[in-house]
Amino acid sequence: MMIVNDQRTREQRMTHTVLITATDKMLSGWGRAEGGNSKAAWCCLPKHADAVFEWVSSRKEMKRVNENKASWRPAPASTAHVSYYVVEDNHPALGAR
After folding, report:
1. Which of 19, 73, 16 is nearest to 42 (CA)?
2. pLDDT tens, residue by residue, 24-76
């Protein structure tokens, strides 16, 4: 059974409609993702998609980085754990520290 950690509010599901998704190679295969992949999705406003994509792509532990729509769901057959994060103005992907 896939474990889902979704940090979005109902409103954020409507406004943060671009998801930058990736497989976390460091967390896949053990812990809460034992027996499968650990996926992450950074939910952002469309105007931030390029910056978030670049930030996720630059992270060494992330592989298979993609841009998806808000309705994205990972394939349960290969995914054991997925976390949805919200990118707000204070997020490191947007230059905040």
Report:
1. 19
2. 876 665 566 666 778 999 999 999 999 999 999 999 989 999 999 888 888 77
Q: How far apart are CA 83 and CA 78, in angstroms?
A: 15
Distance CA 20, CA 41 (A): 5
Burial pattern 2-20, b for ≥16 Cβ within 10 A else e, equals beeeeebeeebeeebbbbb
The number of distinct structural domains making up the chain is 1
The domain containing residue 67 runs over which residues? 3-94
Cα angle 77, 93, 29 (rounded to 5 degrees) comes to 25
Q: Which helix (H) or strand (E) holds 11?
A: helix 10-15
